[in-house]
Amino acid sequence: MRPCIKILExxxxxxxxxxxxxxxxxxxxxxxxxxxxxxxxxxxxxxxTETQKAFIPRDLVKKSxxxxxxxxxxxxxxxxxxxxxxxxxxxxxxxxxxxxxLDRETNKIRTAVTKDFVDFTKVVDQLEHxxxxxxxxxxxxxxxxxSDRYRLLITLIYSxxxxxxxxxxxxxxxxxxxxxxxxxxxxxxxRRKPLAIFDACPSPPLKWxxxxxxxxxxxxxxxxxxxxxxxxxxxxxxxxxxxxxxVQHAAETLAGLVITQIVSPGAPVIWGGSPAAFDMRKGTMxxxxxxxxxxxxxxxxxxxxxxxxxxxxxxxxDAKILDSQAGFETGMGSLLAGVKGVNMISGAGxxxxxxxxxxQKVVIxxxxxxxxxxxxxxxxxxxEPIAKNLLKEFDKKTHLLSHDHTLKWFREELYLxxxxxxxxxxxxxxxKGRKSAGQRTKERVEKLLSKYxxxxxxxxxxxxxxxxxxxEEIDFHKLLDx
Length: 482
Prior knowledge:
Shape: globular
CATH architecture of the domain at 66-376: Alpha-Beta Barrel
Structural class: alpha/beta
Helix content: 40-55%
Strand content: 5-15%
CATH class of the domain at 66-376: Alpha Beta
Distance between the termini: 49 Å
Number of strands: 21
CATH topology of the domain at 66-376: TIM Barrel
């Protein structure tokens, strides 16, 4: 039996969805993109061009829900299936678009540069429990207007894993799509075997901006999965009640879903988000609190109720250093997301209110992801009868350390961590230098970087990607040490 957790009663789920539809029909949502306005109007949606509000009838929402796929297959750069996003399947990826990194030498937060993201990508590519990459770090040493496409360039060169990404400016989509096509081989093949997911974040309350509308429209045209990342903040940009924020989240996400399905019925979408509980004392949004976890799991349950692939930002921390807070917040979020069956669990490595990435933390989080995978498998019966026949053999001198039964099953029954996790005796730990988890993790990072085999993408493919970037002011070969 797979462990499970339930957040909302069935009648409450129906009430949330019904009220969200009422909001879209009666209150409407703001739409700032001209193409989206035209698309909605052509579908019979009433759009008040003066207020930029669209009012979506309930029947159109229901029709759109029927055409949205219930699962999405995600493939790596080599064309191999990595994850089926649907049901209760889970997949971990790092948090996206951090402006800062936690320097592994000084343990201080600083602005990120290219080398930070290259090293981060190399390490994540070797982590066995984090099955997807993300364009995790925004590099300050390139112009902001090419930052989104530059992050994708780095990830495609240094990793084989599928990617969670997104645009910062409208003009970048075509460039980023062309990069993905260059790697996959053709637009048809990219549609058939998705290599990347594009995040699109509506602006709470109830607004789809020019940029985010364009992203989901463009993705729908090419069959690229859109991951809706609604971000209500309780008491700030959404109702202070958790359930009220879940209703707003549902309305914002349904609005995006309708646009994609009008553009291309059957366009792949993911019911995601990154909401937060707002701290009235400090004016900060805490993204790893138990309140935010409840909000996340609640909206995920709505997504599952609607038979859609789901996503959540869980498994991260608001801590500023790798301390016990970073550990317990990340562990709680990751495990509960896994038990809930969140299909794409984002946030590995992330801290400091989603603003900072840590290469050490992502290595630690890989262990947490591994433990989560082990936990959600539940308990399996290996023998029939369960233990009686084995116990028949026992006498006073019997032990099981070298028994055939132990040797057969212990690797499948027990999670065996890397050297990041210490399970030695106190004496052995002292003899090895009394190293903390942080010290052991730093050593593991250095080992992974030293064993990275080099950019695995063919030279011709790299040249194609650099050419697609089309930015003459930067020598990408020099900047990326190609």
